[in-house]
Amino acid sequence: MPRLDRAYKVAEMRRQARRVLPRPVFDFADGGAEDERTLGRNEAAFEDVSLLPRPLEGAAERDLSIELFGRRLSMPLMIGPTGLAGLFWPGGELCAARAATAAGTAYCLSHGSVCTLEALAETGAAPRWMQVFVYRDRGFTRELTDRAAAAGYDALVLTIDNQLLGKRERDIVNGFGIPPRFAPLDLLGMATRLPWLWRMRDVLRTLTFGNYVRAGRPSDIRTLAGSMAGLLDPAMSWRDVEALRQHWQGPLVLKGVLHPDEARRAIEHGIDGIIVSNHGGRQLDGAAASLDALPRIVEAVEGRMAVLLDGGVRRGSHVLKALALGATCCLIGRPQLWGLAVGGEAGVARVLELLRQELDRAMGLCGVGRIADIGPELLAGPGNAIIPKDRRT
Ligand SMILES: Cc1cc2nc3c(=O)[nH]c(=O)nc-3n(C[C@H](O)[C@H](O)[C@H](O)COP(=O)(O)O)c2cc1C
Questions:
Q1: pTM surpassing 0.85?
Q2: Average pLDDT, the chain
Q3: Which domain holds residue 327?
Q4: Does ligand 1 come within 6 angstroms of the Cβ of 311?
Q5: Is 279 a catalytic residue?
Q6: Whose CA is nearest to atom 21 of ligand 1?
Q7: HEC profile for the chain?
C-alpha cells in the first residue's frame, strides 16, 4: 500500500499515485498532448543544464525565502492551477491550498476547480491567486475577476495558451470523460484502487466545476464540461489583456508565455509577471520546453517584471537551475496532484517539503546562502550561452 513516508522523491510520489488512481484519472493528470514531446522535453531540459558549485563560499545558513508581489514566500516554489484537483482527493483544492499555506507559500486556484473560489477563500489560505481564461462571454471573465477581488485573492492569472483544447491522446484512448466512468480494465489491480473509489464515492456523484455553477444555468458537470470548450475564445488578443488590466487592480500575471516578444508586450501592457509555461505539455505539442524558452525571455524582460516558470519541476535542483537562468519562482502542477492522490493535504505537504529540502541542500552544496545569490555563474555547459552580455568575458 502507498505510504507517504516512503515517498522519498517526487517521482516516487508519482509511482504511488499511479497505483492508487484508476488508470484514466492518473493519465488525465500525467498525460500531455499528441506525442508528448513537449511534456518529455520539459523534464529533460533540466538535465541539459549543469551546475558549477562553489562550496568554499560557505553557506552554513540558508534563507530560501523570496518576495513576490509584496508578499514573503518561504521558498521560490508555489502551487500552480490545475483543473479538477478535487478529483484526486475529496476537497482536493482546499487540501492543497492549506498545505501551501502551512508551507508558507502561495496557491493558485484553477478556473476549473471542483470547489468554488469563495470556498477556497474561506479556508484562509494565503497568498491565494486565481486563474481565469478569456471567455467568449467577456462578461464571465469580468464576473470571475470581480468574485476573486471580493474574495480577497492576491493575484490574478490569465492563462493564454488554452484558447483551443490540446489533443490529449491518452484521454482519447482511455475514453476519459467528465464525470469519469470506469471500465473493469481501468480498475485492474483493484485492491490498491478501492480506497480511492470509496473515498470519492460522494464526490463522484456531485462532481462539478464549482466556479461555473451560476443561478439559472445548468450545474450538471456533463453539461458544463461539454460547453467548456465552447467557452474558450481563440480570438482573444492583447485588447482583452488591456481590458483585464483595467478591470483588475492587483498583480496580473500572464501564464503560457514562451516567446520573448510576448514577454516584452506584456510589460508594455502593465502586466506584473509572466509564467513561462507550455501548460505542462498539454496544449501545443512541439512547443519549446519552458526551461529552454526561459533565457531569451529573461533577456527580453531585463528585470522589469517577475518571470515565473512551470513545467517539469521535479527536484529542488530544478528550481535552483531555473533561478540561475533568471526565473523568480517556479510552480508545480502534477506533483501536487500526485501528492493529493496519495495522501490528501499531507501528501501535498510532503511534496512541498521534499522539494524545499532538496533546494536547501542543493543551495548548500553550491555554496549559496540566499536566493538573491543564485545567478548564471552557477551554470556550466549550455547555461553559459545565456550569461548576460555585460558579464561575458
Ligand atoms: C490535470 C491538470 C489540469 C490543469 N489545469 C489547468 C488549468 O485549469 N489552468 C491552467 O492555467 N493550467 C492548468 N494546468 C497546467 C498547470 O498549471 C501547469 O502549467 C503544468 O501542470 C506545469 O507542469 P508540471 O505538471 O510539469 O509541473 C493543468 C495541468 C494538469 C496536469
A1: yes
A2: 93
A3: 4-391
A4: yes
A5: yes
A6: 333
A7: CCCHHHCCCHHHHHHHHHHHCCHHHHHHHHCCCCCCHHHHHHHHHHHCCEECCCHHHCCCCCECCEEECCEEECCCEEECCCCCHHHCCCCHHHHHHHHHHHCCCCEEECCCCCCCHHHHHHCCCCCEEEEECCECCHHHHHHHHHHHHHCCCCEEEEECCCCCCCCCHHHHHHCCCCCCCCCHHHHCCHHHHHHHHHHCHHHHHHCCCHHHCCCCCCCCHHHHHHHHHHHECCCCCHHHHHHHHHHCCCCEEEEEECCHHHHHHHHHCCCCEEEECCHHHCCCCCCCCHHHHHHHHHHHHCCCCEEEEECCCCCHHHHHHHHHCCCCEEEECHHHHHHHHHHHHHHHHHHHHHHHHHHHHHHHHHCCCEHHHCCHHHEEHHHHHHCCHHHCC
